[in-house]
């Protein structure tokens, strides 16, 4: 069977992937979520004319240079002066305090002298000066945040100031993780030499959470056909939006995931992709659930999760469309061999920059089981199928690893 190009596989995985339904969340649970509906201001900010400085609220007509005004009272934030400023009067005012009725200017503290209840003006007041007008930031009923916006920490402050304790956001996609293999044991449990410590759920789970998903660890399956089929059926019944399996995706005698999924009625629209690492990638649908089968090798699993799982989660979570492959420009700091028919994602390090472009050198070992190499890498050097040999100084494409 011919290998599917990476772009075609990604198109199949993202086909019909639309934002999930909306739900209401309190602001402290909404960071990073995507708004399903706009945030409408419940009040104006400021809600009244307020002072921008410490000083005195006056009538500008009374407050020329040398004018002596009678101190009538005080207006502080949260404690407004309840009376109107009369001719010849001044009201002590502090930053953020409501401007008293009758006043139309602020004389800042530095431009006055005070003796008891008498205030002398040293610089003439100007109407409107040092006053923040009601609604100057935003008005009640206005849209302060549009639908489709991914909420930043700054957005949360704005929504709170708009008197909204909750917002309507796209539901987080639920990702269920299933690992397969008799050899797998959990870290810290005392693995024997013939066993492999399970690592994929941690890297794949972290990428999924960072992309906006709720992640559920659904356990590890043995290399047994009946047990695998039963467990996958239970996982599909668990109402996850995306079921991610790691391992068992190839064609060996103990690779049971593909035949088990097929027996359960999953149409594997993607199986075997022209990429390195990660050729045994699988994808199919079962009702409303999507099934993504990742290779068992930990580097392959991580790279495939980055390339295929993260865009799918982001699409379901309502994030704005992003490039299928978030490529950045680079320049080779060492030569690379010509490539074969598979798109290659080589682990590489960034040695510095020249003219704002990263200088990239592939790491010497590219084995898909070598997690130390993946951890050392700064980026993936992307090599197109059948790319000719690259020389030092040639331009290249990279995907930065910033997690």
Automatic annotation (TrEMBL):
Its EC number is 2.10.1.1. SUPFAM superfamilies: MoeA C-terminal domain-like (SSF63867), MoeA N-terminal region -like (SSF63882), Molybdenum cofactor biosynthesis proteins (SSF53218). Its cofactor is Mg(2+). It catalyses: adenylyl-molybdopterin + molybdate = Mo-molybdopterin + AMP + H(+). Keywords: Magnesium, Metal-binding, Molybdenum, Molybdenum cofactor biosynthesis, Transferase. It is an enzyme of class 2 (transferase). It comes from the Bacteria. Pathway: Cofactor biosynthesis; molybdopterin biosynthesis. Belongs to the MoeA family. This is Molybdopterin molybdenumtransferase.
């Amino acid at each position: 069977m011919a290998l599917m190009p990476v772009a075609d596989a990604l198109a199949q995985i993202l086909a019909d992937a639309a934002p999930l339904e909306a739900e209401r969340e309190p602001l402290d649970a909404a960071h990073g979520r995507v708004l399903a509906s706009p945030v409408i201001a419940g009040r104006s900010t400021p809600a009244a004319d307020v002072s921008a400085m410490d000083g005195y609220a006056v009538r500008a007509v009374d407050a020329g240079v040398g004018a002596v005004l009678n101190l009538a009272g005080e207006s502080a934030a949260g404690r407004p002066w309840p009376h109107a400023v009369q001719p010849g009067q001044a009201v002590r005012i502090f930053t953020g305090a409501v401007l008293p009725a009758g006043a139309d200017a602020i004389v800042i503290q530095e431009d006055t002298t005070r003796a008891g209840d008498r205030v002398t003006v040293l610089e003439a007041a100007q109407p409107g000066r040092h006053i923040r007008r009601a609604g100057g930031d935003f008005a009640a009923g206005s849209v302060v945040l549009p639908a489709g916006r991914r909420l930043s920490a700054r957005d949360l402050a704005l929504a709170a100031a708009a008197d909204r304790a909750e917002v309507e956001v796209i539901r987080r996609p639920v990702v269920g993780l299933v690992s397969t293999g008799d050899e797998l044991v959990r870290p810290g449990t005392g693995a024997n030499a013939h066993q492999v410590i399970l690592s994929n759920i941690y890297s794949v789970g972290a990428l999924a959470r960072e992309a906006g998903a709720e992640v559920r660890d659904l356990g590890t399956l043995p290399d047994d056909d009946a047990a695998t089929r039963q467990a996958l059926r239970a996982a599909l019944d668990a109402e996850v939006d995306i079921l991610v399996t790691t391992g068992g995706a190839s064609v060996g005698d103990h690779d049971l995931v593909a035949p088990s999924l097929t027996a359960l009625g999953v149409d594997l629209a993607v199986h075997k992709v022209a990429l390195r690492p990660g050729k045994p990638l699988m994808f199919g649908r079962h009702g409303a659930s999507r099934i993504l089968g990742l290779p068992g090798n930990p580097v392959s699993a991580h790279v495939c999760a980055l390339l295929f799982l993260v865009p799918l989660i982001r699409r379901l979570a309502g994030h704005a469309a992003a490039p299928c492959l978030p490529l950045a420009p680079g320049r080779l700091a060492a030569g690379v061999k010509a490539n074969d028919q598979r798109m290659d994602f080589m682990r590489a390090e960034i040695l510095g920059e020249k003219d704002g472009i990263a200088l990239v050198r592939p790491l010497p070992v590219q084995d898909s089981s070598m997690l130390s190499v993946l951890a050392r890498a700064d980026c993936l050097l992307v090599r197109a199928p059948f790319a000719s040999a690259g020389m030092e100084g040639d331009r290249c494409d990279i995907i930065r690893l910033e997690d």
